[in-house]
Structures are given as C-alpha cells and as structure tokens.
Amino acid sequence: MHITIIGCGYVGLTTAVSLAYMGRCVHVIDQNEERIQMLRRSQPPIHEKGLEELLNQTNGRLTFGTWDSFEIKTDVVIIAVGTPSKENGDADLSYVEAVARELGQRLTPQVCDKSTSAPVIVNKSTVPIGSARRVQSIISQHLKERNIVTSISVASNPEFLREGVALHDTFYPDRIVIGSEDTQAAYTLREMYAPILEQTFSAPEFLPRPENYLLPAFIITSPTSAELIKYAANTFLAMKISYINEIAGLSEKVGADIQEVARGIGLDKRIGSQFLNAGIGWGGSCFPKDVQALIHTGEQYGYAMPLSQSAIDVNYRQREEVIKKLQSALKVLRGRTIGLLGLAFKPGTDDLRDAPAITIAERLIELGVHVKAYDPIAMENCRHIHPNLAIEYVSSSTELVNGIDALILITEWNEFIHLPYKLYGEKMRQKVILDGRNALNSQALRDAGFTYIGVGK
Ligand code: NAD
Ligand code: UDX
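That is the input. Now the predicted structure with nicotinamide-adenine-dinucleotide docked in place:
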C-alpha cells in the first residue's frame, strides 16, 4: 500500500514514521523546503521522543519531498496540515483548502478494471464540520476543469495523539475513528491501519506495548460525527482540567488540598483520575484553538455553549492568579527579578503555542519585572517565535536562581522535580517558590525555609 502524507508536523510526521515502520510505503510532502531537507538527513524538524530513532528504522520505505515530488500512484492521501485559530475563533481552513487545490491540480486517477479509481483522501487535520465535503468539492471542481470525471472520496480521520508521547499514542491508540459514507474507502483505511488495529508489528525497543493494552476500537461514523468527535473530545478534556482548577481555587479559600480532593474524585471510575492535575492551566496547539472552534460552530447555529466558554475563562484566570499570588507574596513586583523554570506548554515538547509561560512572562514584564527563564529544549523556539519578549535566557537552572526574588515552576520537566532546591535557596534573593504544576515536594521546601505557593493547596 502506498500512502502520501501532506504536512510533516507533529501529526503528519508521526503518522508517516509509524506507518513506514509498520511496512507501508510512505511519501511525505511539505511546502517547507527546509523541513524536507532536514528530514532527508534523518533529522526531525520537531522535538518528539523517539522520532529520530524510528526515522532510521524505516528501511527506505519513507521518502520526503515538496509538491513537485507528488506521485499519482498512491492509494491514500492523508492531509495533516495546520488549522490555527482565526481572530473570530473559527478554524482557519486556508492550509487545508490550499492542499485540496494542489490535489485537484495533480491527481490523475488510475485506470483499473476499465473504471477509474482515485486515491482515498483523508482529512487528519482537526477541522470543523462540513470540511470533508468542502475538500471533496474543491478537488472535484479542479478535476472537472481538467476534464477528469471520477468520484473522489474524502474521509475524516481525526487524530488524538498528544505531543511528547506522539509515537506511543500512534502505536497504541484507544480508538481509530473514520468518518466516511463510502464503504470501500473505509475498507481501504481499515487495511492501512491493520498493523495497529491488530497489533501485528514488533514493538520498537524503546516503545514496548503497554501491559494490559487492549486492541484499539475501529469506529466508522458519518464525516460530520467524526469531525465533531475530535472537537468534543478535546473540549471535554480541557473542561475537566478547568473544572479541577476551579475546585482548586475553592480549595484555597476553604483550606482543602486539591491533590487530596482530586484523588478522591478520580477514584470514581465514572470520572477517572487522568486530567485532574490542577495548575496554571492548559495550553498548546490544540485545546485553546479547538475549544474556540467548537464554540464558534455553536455560534453559527445560534447555539450558546456556556460550559465550553467557562472552560476558557477559568483557564486564563489561572494564569492571572499566578500574578496575584506573586503580588501577595512579594507585595511590589516592579524592580524584582523572577525566574521561570520551563517555557513549553508541557514537558516533552518544545511547542510554545498558547503556552501559559508566554502570558505570564508578558504580564510580569508589563509590571516592571525582570524575567529570566530556563527550559531544556524550548528556549530556542521561544527566542525565534517571540523575538520581542524581553526574557533573559540562561543556560541552566543553577544560573536561573542566581539573585532572583521568586521562582515559578511553569513546566514540570522531570529534571526539575529533583533539583537541589535547598542549595538554590541560598542563591536566591528571596526564598519564594510558586509551584505552577503542584509537582514539587511542598513540605520539603517549607522545611528548607521557602515560602511555598502551590495551586489549590
Ligand atoms: P504543524 O504546524 O506542526 O505542521 C503542519 C505542517 O504542514 C507544516 O510542516 C507546514 O509546512 C505544512 N503545510 C502547511 N500548508 C501546506 C501545504 N499547502 N502543502 C504542504 N505542506 C503544508 O501541525 P500539527 O501540529 O501536526 O497539526 C496538524 C493538524 O493536526 C492540525 O489540524 C491540528 O489541530 C491537528 N492535531 C494536532 C495535534 C498535535 O498534538 N499537534 C494532535 C491532534 C491533531
Ligand atoms: C491534546 C490532547 O490530549 C490530544 O488527545 C489531542 O490530540 C491534542 O491535544 P496535547 O495538547 O499534546 O494533547 O497535550 P495534553 O497532554 O493533552 O496537555 C494539554 C495541556 O493540558 C497542557 O498544557 C498540560 O500541561 C495541561 N494539563 C494536562 C493540565 O493542566 N492538567 C492535566 O491534568 C493534564
């Protein structure tokens, strides 16, 4: 089976590497030549655990190129380009539509059993309802202009991977959802995913099959349901975090400990313990834009979605709370130096899209604070994406703590959990630590003379 994947970001590249590892021939197309050149040298253009190792284990089945290398003999074309937020909260479909136009200008259906057959087009990008139909209509229109008569099938195949553990989630998903009204297309996609659905591949050494892992469910739905499943899933998870953050705020008022409360809640199997970590809230390339896009879809139908809107409001309040807590601990912020431990929106990635670190740094700078920061991998990205943000980047956590008035744990990288905080306290001007992820040992820090501030504790 030959597969073409458009877009070599987190989703496209992870999918490509995984399917090639499992024996499929995969060609990846991206308009970004620099990324293609890097990939040809087996260097991933994004930071994702295990990608580099797997890139070298695909035995020539994985190739890369720009649009000029588009190969018409392909069974499946997977669209995995970005769908960022527009100003009004709607998803920006311009990248997806540009791909549809390219496909309409390049596809030449193959003759097979006297009838023509075109590859199955798959929308893996997160897109609003109706997008599969929209892509189909753009491609068909271009084919018509080229006097090509064939039916094009566009399926929706939402992606549920998390950054940082993207390969793990692709190899061992809970479910694969295909939104298609074309039985043959759904069958082809089932074939494509067979190694994952049946777990017939031999697991890479660094990615063993989890104990008690159950085979993933394969669900065929209408394209509209599949498109909605993705937004509804992300909004639910975002809402779960905002809910625990709201309870964390109340815990602070009444003197409860949110980690005890979350444990007590999460043990109820109907609720579950995951995504109940209170902290400075969610960020990243998906939750913020996807919750917005879901609300926008509601608006288009005159349907208010107050729960989803509240999830956003609570989330941004968490970032503002950090400033209030620092004001309460240090009183005057102007002229202070504050250190940010971590910048990425979560550990395991250098992604800074809608990262709480950026909002917090901007607010502190506005209030006259000198902001220092250290992150093991996201600093380069931060310099590049936010060149005007007046952060002093330092090369280690030891350097970070020198002469600061407060330290904020923003990203709970493993290496930050067991730092020699006691020693660090001696280098800090004031021993104030704000643990934005409730990841540190609060008692040990208090015993070492720190003013420890958590979230909901
Ligand atoms: P990304 O920004 O990391 O990568 C997108 C890639 O597409 C880039 O390399 C870009 O150069 C390329 N591209 C854009 N337009 C193109 C065109 N016309 N032709 C060829 N290449 C083009 O994006 P991502 O994070 O992988 O996300 C892709 C989609 O998947 C989005 O809709 C996103 O919401 C969804 N998604 C992302 C994640 C995640 O964790 N990142 C998880 C699930 C779903
Ligand atoms: C998310 C979804 O989990 C994934 O299924 C989807 O495909 C893409 O969006 P991702 O954004 O990579 O994945 O990260 P995730 O692990 O979900 O974390 C999102 C944000 O929530 C992070 O900022 C993280 O710090 C925060 N979070 C997560 C919490 O604050 N508390 C939690 O309990 C869990």
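Residues 2-221 form a domain with the Rossmann fold fold (CATH 3.40.50.720).
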